[in-house]
Specification:
Endonuclease III, domain 1, Nucleoside Triphosphate Pyrophosphohydrolase, 3-stranded antiparallel β-sheet
Length: 360
């Protein structure tokens, strides 16, 4: 009886796993055995953020909230302050809500299966699949931009974005099942992500260092740089933020807390800032004092101007300074404001632009 034929994708799975085990970056959440809580935190941090930026914040965040219970019991403002510098602060709120849900509904233990994980705030199919497969060894598929790019190039599929992602999920499901049968679903899924992040990168992939280059159809055809097709960029809304850095004779700074808007909190919702007025037109310094409910003090000329890009906005910051003679007589019943030293300002939850403005 002739030997059974090996699955056509088996060698692909094995190559990815061998390469990952030899070349994986030593990241602080890649401990053995995997800690579900650290993995959960890392996955939230890595959403729309480069690994290098996450590495700057991860250890300090874990030191501040060493266990899931510590994070669940923390005040949201402390969580936002520890998240400061990572951006996309909605993720911090969702992570906080997720661990509280785990405490309330799962006895403080991160769920093991995809459906239970997806029932938590902020966990979509990809994040749930990553935790279920990498941490718990379940046969769960994962697809993010890196994984989709690897799979599309291997098969030379020049698809539009929507069709490409649907196709990639089906491919990932087949491959995850095969990897699970071989007992390597965790390192395989993580290997696909690592491959896309470090080797099979957008634009100019490092095909000479790729463990699956011999079977890559896009490379064979010389079209790897054209796959996947680039996504059309949405037009960014323009916004101007007029900022007044107000100080008092004791050198303290006036800061205010942004209000929360909608379920996501809005842009930088709940974070601290120097008094700021947002508009899409123009405003005079005199008019600015009234809009910000500042006392009748002289607001200087613009001393700093810079642009900050978000996913949907192009924000121009214009920074002026003002000094008040007697801060203790000032009150703002309708605004959450307070005076703070520059040293203490460093511990506030600040957006990156406001951190630059207030702390230099």
């Amino acid at each position: 009886m002739p030997p059974a034929k090996a699955h056509p994708n088996l060698e692909f799975v094995r190559r990815v796993v061998r390469w990952f085990r030899a070349a994986a970056r030593p990241l602080p959440w890649r401990i053995s055995p995997r800690d579900p809580y650290r993995s959960l935190v890392s996955e939230f941090m890595l959403q729309q953020t480069q690994v290098a930026r996450v590495l700057e914040k991860f250890d300090a965040f874990i030191d501040r909230f060493p266990t899931l219970l510590h994070l669940a019991n923390a005040d949201e403002r402390d969580v936002l302050a520890s998240w400061s510098g990572l951006g996309y602060y909605r993720r911090a709120r969702l992570l906080h809500a997720a661990v509280r849900s785990i405490v309330d509904s799962h006895d403080g233990r991160v769920p093991r299966d995809v459906d239970a994980l997806m029932s938590l705030p902020g966990l979509g199919r990809y994040t749930a699949g990553a935790i279920a497969s990498i941490v718990f060894g379940n046969a769960a598929p994962i697809v993010d931009g890196n994984v989709a790019r690897v799979l599309l190039r291997i098969s030379a599929k020049p698809m539009s974005t929507d069709k490409a992602m649907a196709w990639a999920w089906k491919q990932s499901e087949r491959l995850a099942t095969l990897a699970y049968e071989q007992g390597v679903v965790g390192p395989f899924n993580e290997g696909l992500m690592e491959l896309g992040a470090t080797i099979c990168t957008p634009g100019t992939p490092r095909c000479g260092s790729c463990p699956i280059a011999p079977s890559c159809q896009a490379r064979a055809r010389g079209v790897q740089g054209l796959i996947p097709r680039p996504k059309a960029k949405a037009a960014q809304k323009k916004l101007v933020c007029e900022v007044v850095v107000v100080s008092d004779p004791r050198g303290r700074l006036l800061v205010e807390r942004r209000t929360l808007r909608g379920k996501s909190g809005g842009m930088w919702g709940g974070l601290w800032q120097a008094p700021t007025h947002e508009h899409a037109g123009d405003v005079t310094p005199r008019g600015l004092a009234g809009l910000l409910e500042l006392p009748p003090v002289r607001i200087g000329k613009v001393t700093l101007e810079f642009e900050h890009l978000t996913t949907h906005r192009r924000v121009l910051f214009r920074v002026r300074h003002a000094r008040v003679p007697d801060a203790d007589t000032l009150a703002w019943p309708d605004r959450e404001r307070r005076w703070i030293s520059r040293e203490d300002a460093a511990g506030l939850a600040l957006s990156n632009p406001q951190r630059r403005i207030l702390l230099g």
